[in-house]
Amino acid sequence: MPKEKVTLTLDSGNLRDLRALVGARSLSVAADAAVRSYLERLRHLGAIDEWLVELEREHGPIPFETLEWAARLVGDWNSSRSKRRRRAS
Question: pTM for the full model?
Answer without folding.
Answer: 0.67
